[in-house]
Design brief:
It contains 6 helices and 9 strands. By secondary structure, the chain is α/β, with parallel strands linked by helices. The chain has a single domain, classed as Vaccinia Virus protein VP39 (Rossmann fold).
Length: 231
Amino acid sequence: MPATQASPWLAHALQRTAAGPAEPLNVPARMEWTTRPGSGPDAEILGPDLRRKRVLELGCGPGHNVACLATRHGAQATGLDLVGLQIRRARSHYGRLGNATFVAGHALHYLQASDKQFDAIYSVFGAIGLVSPVLLFPAIAERLKPGRTLAFSVPHPQRNGGRPSSDDRPRRDYVTMPDRTRLPIPRWDFDADRWEAHLERAGLWLTSAQEFHDTRHGCWPTTLLVTARKL
């Protein structure tokens, strides 16, 4: 994630930290991909059997999905986040879990520097959409084993009645802080067709694109969930 984006995410983590200490948590019963808990798929979209599989989350936040994959699916799960405070919280919540690892770093830099191969890579409102896909998708493809899955959820481009980007440039969006203030961020805000074009350039084949609604936020779809496979 570009350095210019670090400040909003750090501010978000600082407010979370100020709200109370991070303590050990129970492992969630399922993965969450959307803005509405309990809707959408679980971990099955990453593969039919994740036991001992190496899985990477780009933008893990407090680590809930990593913990679920490590404990309930037996994956060797790594969570990466740009903000060290988020990694500290994730370790406070789930550091006791043997199959879960949490690492601070920039998604693009981590992928480019790593020599690991992963059985699945995913992002839940994380790095994908916040880092240029021209750079990020080829780096993901390098680290993903052939035939394996990339999955990511992003804010739906038509949320709040908006339109998807008409070109490949990022546009202005906002991240909502815990205190409900909003800070601006750049976001690549694509529809499924434009995501597919970027995936194909990196050697990744789109396998599904699903939209999900959250009636608490009006009638427009709120989440776009995309899955792809390395050729």
